[in-house]
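Sanity check

After download, print the first record. It should look like this:
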Amino acid sequence: MKFSRFALAAVAALALSAQARAATVIKLATLAPEGSAWMNIMGRLAKDVESSTGGEVKFKVYANGVQGDEKDVVRKIRMGQLHAGGFTGVGIGEISPAVRVLDAPFMFKSPEEIDYVYKTFDGELRKELLDKGYVLLGWTEVGLVYLYTNAPIRQPSDLKAVKMWMWEGDPVAEAALKAMNIAPVSLSVTDVMSSLQTGMINAVYGSPLSVIAMQWQTRTKYMFSLAITNASGALLVSKKQFDQISPDNQKILLDLSSKYMRELTLRTREDNRKAVETLRKDGFTVTDPASPAVAEQFAQAGVTARRSLVGRLYPASLFDRVEKAVQDFRKAKK
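Expected structure tokens:
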């Protein structure tokens, strides 16, 4: 009887040990601050994944840039210190430059166009990321990106005196700003606020929601109404860590992530709309291009910018097909 009790205890211990080994913890980092829509939805996703997999898959989330800039997060994933990230296009581009076609300057004019392109090219871009060692858990977006300055912008000549920030090492932003004849100051996103305070820069770009989240609106006064791009986003996990998960749990993780990232996209669009209203109430002045001809000047600068990235980031074949898809969608809608 003593031996039987010992054997049962040993079996129970082995079973608990096996359960412990079966649990896979995904260490994920993001620049999103605590309390943001991104973190709230990510928290719900983490709970749902843990519950649906019986505790076999868990997230440990590092928010507010505590793991560094997105380039730092990519580097730490490669070293095995982290496993996943909630990325903007900058981080995605560190992994697969071709996917930055989703951030091509002045490409999109409506959320419907954005959704159409993401759906049309999902399989191709998903494979592109997989070939780089990452599994796409879900697409999302930061939203339409605008310029925020301390002097009103209505035409290209107004940009000459602007000391514009540029996210360090972002070729898409560099191409867009260059096409508008802006000589930017290259900085990490974590250095922007201090640089606004010292006067090193006096202008930034971003979605309305992200600008408020970073408190950059406290150091600027004007928003230019013409969006320069739509900033992409994605939830990515290293294939190495993903492969540690059982096939059944992989499907659960993919399905739930896709569901919650779509919810985040819709929530982000609504929050960005509300953020513009908040900026206006706080005294921000939203300026428009001086005339339709001036708006066309900016549009042509966008064409120059996105085509200058062909061969540097995305291949011509992919870019041409994405651009054609947008044009075809517009024609069909008309």
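If your output differs, re-run the checksum step. Summary of this record's structure: Strands lie at 24-30, 57-62, 84-88, 134-149, 165-167, 185-187, 204-206, 222-238, 285-287.
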